[in-house]
C-alpha cells in the first residue's frame, strides 16, 4: 500500500459498495433527505445513481462523507 493511501479509510472500497451499504442502512427516502440530490429523490435506482455519482465529483464527495460517518458509528 502506498504512503498516500495508508490512512485513507476509503481505499479499496468501490462506489457501488458504498451506495449499496448506504441504501441498506438508510433506504432511498432517507438518503434523499440526507443528501438532497435528484438521483436519490426521484425514482432512485442503483444504475442511475452510480452513473450520476461517477460523473459528479461534488455528489460523490457527499456520498463518501456520509459513508464514513456511517461506518464510524
Task: Describe the protein.
It is globular and about 40 Å long. The model has no long low-confidence stretch (mean pLDDT 90). Helix 1 (15-34) crosses helix 3 (46-55), helix 1 (15-34) crosses helix 4 (57-72) and helix 3 packs across helix 4 (57-72). By secondary structure, it is mainly alpha-helical. It contains 4 helices and no strands. The termini are far apart. It has a single domain, classed as SAP domain (Transcription Termination Factor Rho, Rna-binding Domain, Chain A, Domain 1), CATH 1.10.720.
Radius of gyration over all CA atoms, rounded: 12 Å
Strand residue percentage? under 5%
* SSE-based structural type: mainly alpha
Classified by CATH, the class is Mainly Alpha
Number of beta strands: 0
What is the CATH homologous superfamily assignment? SAP domain
> For the terminal residues, how far apart are their CA atoms?
26 Å
| Biggest sheet statistics | none
Q: What is the name of the CATH architecture? A: Orthogonal Bundle
Percent of residues in helices: 55-70%
Can you give the mean pLDDT? 90
- Low-pLDDT stretches: none
From the 3D structure, determine the CATH topology: Transcription Termination Factor Rho, Rna-binding Domain, Chain A, Domain 1
- Whole-number total of structural domains: 1
- The count of helical stretches stands at 4
Large-scale geometry = globular
Question: How do the SSEs run, as a string of H and E?
Answer: HHHH
Amino acid at each position: 500500500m502506498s504512503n498516500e493511501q495508508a490512512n485513507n479509510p476509503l481505499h479499496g472500497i468501490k462506489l457501488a459498495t458504498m451506495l449499496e451499504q448506504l441504501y441498506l442502512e438508510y433506504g432511498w427516502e432517507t438518503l434523499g433527505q440526507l443528501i438532497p440530490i435528484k438521483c436519490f429523490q426521484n425514482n432512485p435506482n442503483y444504475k442511475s445513481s452510480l452513473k450520476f455519482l461517477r460523473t459528479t465529483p461534488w455528489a460523490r464527495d457527499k456520498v463518501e462523507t456520509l459513508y464514513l460517518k456511517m461506518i464510524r458509528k
